[in-house]
Design brief:
By secondary structure, the chain is of the alpha/beta class. It is elongated and about 80 Å long. Strands 2, 3, 4, 6, 7, 8, 13, 14 and 15 form a nine-stranded mixed beta sheet that branches. Strands 10-11-9-12 form a four-stranded antiparallel beta sheet, covered by helices on one side. It has a two-stranded antiparallel sheet with strand order 1-5. The relative contact order is 0.18. It is about 35% helix and about 25% strand. The protein folds into two domains: about 290 residues, Zn peptidases (Aminopeptidase), CATH 3.40.630; about 110 residues, Alpha-Beta Plaits (2-Layer Sandwich). The structure holds (2S)-amino(hydroxy)ethanoic acid (HGY) and manganese (II) ion (2 copies). The site of (2S)-amino(hydroxy)ethanoic acid has 5 residues, from loops.
């Protein structure tokens, strides 16, 4: 079975561009925050494409969306594929969307070739893979895997202090949050197509990546409280400047990540909110959101412990209070050998070069792996750039990914 004749890359690129137009920002910037007006329009657009392909569509209580192509033996657990369509502020158009629209294209290709899946094939759009609105990543897949309880979900609030439950209801998603949890075995296997969000495949001229491990993400919130005061009248001795203290903490995270001796350890402070934020007022409160990852969770946790030690030392020396709160600290996931082998066979049959590799970004597959065997299929992205408007994957790269995905889905669903 050769997918090439049925693969319509022009249609797929047009759909990716149409989806990119549904954004809270002007082109070429994509911003699509969960439960925002743009998110809901984007969901409607993709669900429309799924229905045009004859898939039966349903959504769960948090908005995870399932589009099923029924197999000849509908009682068997389906093969899942998919990703996310939400996007952080100032993002590009490929992160997540390639896995959703590319997964749909792979299904349409198999339909056109007359393939009849024994196991149903189910395309999944996960809610809120990005942490932007509620501070925690993979919200929909995390709840699906039972890794975030309804009580924890009810406690989530956005920066406007709006609660998750209120926002999901306003977005039209009803039902109990407990109903989002899926049992182990709900998917027979799950495969996610995604851009690499790193430079390796392009640098080495390789068509597809077979992901053996997904890095272990952690996020820690740090709130530093000092004393404010007049930037002119308050002399330097005795100041309790929260932002100066934060600067020491930020640099300590960078140093701790660099000093583990492993290139796989990364540490980032992506959010730094300063109060009151006036040029002539000494900062009295700073909120930092830190992102700490490694493919080895023990090594990652050692960095977190070192950062907590630094916070205690800085607080003591500067006379400020520093509160730390773990938002999440998740174990890494490993790719299922049988799926990896099926992807490798598909790549060979497709005449595509491939390489087994690690994912340094996290993905919904990290949580789906708790209820089903998973693996991820990467395609190159230009310069490894992602989470920026100049993120780019060529039609040839995307076509190779969809081609290998289509073959693999056919193998797994037979
Ligand atoms: O941050 C990540 O790894 C993912 O892109 N949300
Ligand atoms: Mn992302
Ligand atoms: Mn992503």
């Amino acid at each position: 079975m050769d997918p090439r004749p049925a693969l319509s890359i022009d249609r797929l690129i047009a759909e990716l561009n149409a989806l990119a137009q549904i954004s809270a920002a002007e082109r070429p910037v994509v911003t699509r925050i969960v439960f925002s007006e743009a998110d809901l329009r984007a969901r409607a657009y993709v669900k429309g494409l799924c229905r045009e392909a004859g898939l039966s569509v349903h959504e769960d209580a948090i908005g995870n969306t399932f589009a099923r192509w029924s197999g000849t033996d509908p009682d068997l657990a389906p093969i899942g594929t998919g990703s996310h369509i939400d996007a952080i502020p100032n993002a590009g158009l490929y992160d997540g969307c390639v896995g959703v629209l590319g997964g749909l294209e792979a299904i349409r290709v198999l339909q056109q070739l007359g393939f009849k899946p024994r196991r149903s094939i189910e395309l999944v759009i996960f809610t809120a893979e990005e942490p932007t609105r509620f501070g925690i990543g993979c919200l929909g897949s995390r709840m699906m895997a039972g890794a975030l309880s309804p009580a924890q979900a009810f406690a989530l609030r956005d920066r406007e202090d709006q609660g998750l439950d209120e926002l999901r209801s306003q977005a039209g998603f009803t039902g109990t949050l407990a109903s989002v949890v899926l049992p182990s075995g709900r998917f027979h296997q799950f495969i996610e197509l995604h851009i690499e969000q790193g430079p390796i495949l392009e640098l080495e001229g390789i068509d597809v990546g077979l992901v053996t491990h997904i890095a272990a993400p952690a996020s820690m919130r740090i709130v530093i409280e000092g004393e404010g005061g007049h930037a002119g009248g308050k002399l330097m001795p005795g100041r309790k400047d929260a932002l100066a203290a934060a600067a020491e903490v930020i640099l300590a995270l960078e140093a701790a990540a660099k000093l583990t001796g492993a290139i796989d350890t990364v540490g980032t402070v992506g959010v730094c909110e300063v109060f009151p934020g006036a040029v002539n007022s000494i900062p009295s409160r700073v909120r930092l959101e830190t992102d700490i990852r490694d493919i080895d969770d023990a090594r990652r946790d050692a960095v977190i412990d070192k950062l907590k030690d630094t916070c205690r030392e800085v607080a003591e020396r500067r006379g400020v209070s520093i509160a730390t709160e773990m938002v999440n600290a998740d174990p890494p996931a490993t790719g299922d050998p049988a799926i990896l082998d099926a992807m490798e066979q598909s790549a060979k049959a497709a005449g595509k070069s491939f390489k087994r590799m690690v994912s340094r970004a996290y993905h919904d597959s990290l949580f789906v792996s708790r209820i089903a065997p998973v693996a991820m299929l990467f395609i190159p992205c230009r310069g490894g750039v992602s989470h920026r408007p100049d993120e780019y994957a060529s039609p040839e790269w995307i076509g190779s990914g969809v081609h290998v995905l289509a073959r693999t889905l056919a193998t797994l669903a037979s």
